[in-house]
Design brief:
Length: 280
């Protein structure tokens, strides 16, 4: 059985739909990953062969002012999962992020590039990676710029704002790959099926800025909106972000045969699924 922890989150929900076979999902009501007792109780009872951890404190700016909580959930929480999965011989799949890198590179980051997080969130997720490596049977999947049905994400924010105004400023100096959670869930499924271990990057193909992404969202959705470019410094968010954080996904393709679709095609499919689900 595969156990998805954080199953009610944005990625967790799509993993519950995409993973094959016997899949169970739990969220904070059943397992609080900051509590070693709750982690032990649930995992020792269910005895899964794979645990996929999607539970995290994902508010990047919130982490700056709640560093203790960030470290407890994103760092130590993973340690509690690693200790129990090690004990029962289960694989631990830990989700991680491009924010473990500093963004000071001119080509996509490789799995073994040295991490150098700029933010509390990035440091807490790096601690989570280190904790996951405490069990030999681990798979760390770094991803970025996620959006999916039912989640709080950039696509949904842009579509909501388009009902409230006709002009918006979006940062044009952060570069990455917008990634649809369904495509990411497929990549995770393939990594598990192919018995991959260690660290992998998984993101939709191609890179763009948030400004490019916003323009694509409005174009694909057929919405009139004036998008003005803005710098990260002008936006002035509490947490520093890497300026260039494209992830090289060649290792995923080499070891599974899977190449994720381009970000623009994925966006078009997502918007189609939204319409089918009755969302405007
Ligand atoms: N979103 C992105 O752009 C992005 C980019 C790169 C990597 N990632 C990583 O991908 C993974 C999934 O992200 P996501 O966006 O799907 O996250 P999400 O929607 O925020 O879901 C996280 C889930 O974890 C739960 N949770 C929070 N604290 C918990 C705890 N102590 N114990 C158990 N569950 C807890 C949350 O419950 P509540 O909602 O009740 O708090 C929520 O259901 C995370 O590891 C994240 O760091 C995300």
């Amino acid at each position: 059985m595969i156990l998805v922890v954080g199953a009610k989150g944005m990625l967790g929900r799509d993993l519950m739909r995409v993973l094959p076979g016997d899949v169970r999902g739990v969220d904070i009501e059943e397992i609080d990953i900051t509590s070693p007792e709750s982690v032990r109780r649930v995992i020792l009872t269910l005895k899964p062969r794979v645990v996929v951890n999607c539970a995290a404190y994902t508010d990047v700016d919130g982490c700056e002012t709640n560093a203790d909580l960030a470290m407890a959930v994103n760092g130590e929480g993973v340690g509690h999962l690693a200790a129990v999965t090690r004990e029962i011989g289960a694989l631990l799949v830990q989700m991680s992020t491009d924010y473990v890198f500093d963004g000071v590179k001119e080509s996509p980051f490789l799995e073994d590039d040295p991490p150098n997080p700029l933010s509390v969130y990035g440091r807490s997720k790096l601690m989570g990676e280190e904790q996951a490596r405490e069990t030999p049977d681990h798979l760390i999947v770094r991803t970025q710029w996620l959006y999916g049905l039912g989640g709080k994400n950039f696509v949904e924010t842009m579509l909501r704002l388009s009902t409230e105004r006709s002009e918006i400023a979006v940062v044009d100096d952060q570069i990455g790959s917008p990634t649809w959670t369904v495509d990411l869930a497929l990549a995770i499924s393939e990594l598990i099926e192919n018995n991959c271990r260690g660290t992998y990057h998984a993101a939709n193909r191609g890179i763009c800025s948030w400004f490019d992404f916003a323009r694509a969202i409005f174009a694909e959705a057929g919405v009139e909106m004036t998008v003005r470019p803005q710098t990260t410094a002008q936006l002035g968010r509490p947490a520093p972000r890497p300026l260039y954080s494209a992830l090289c996904c060649d290792k995923l393709t080499r070891d599974t045969g899977l190449e994720l679709e381009g970000w623009r095609e994925a966006l078009a499919t997502y918007l189609e699924k939204r319409r089918e689900a009755g969302l405007s």
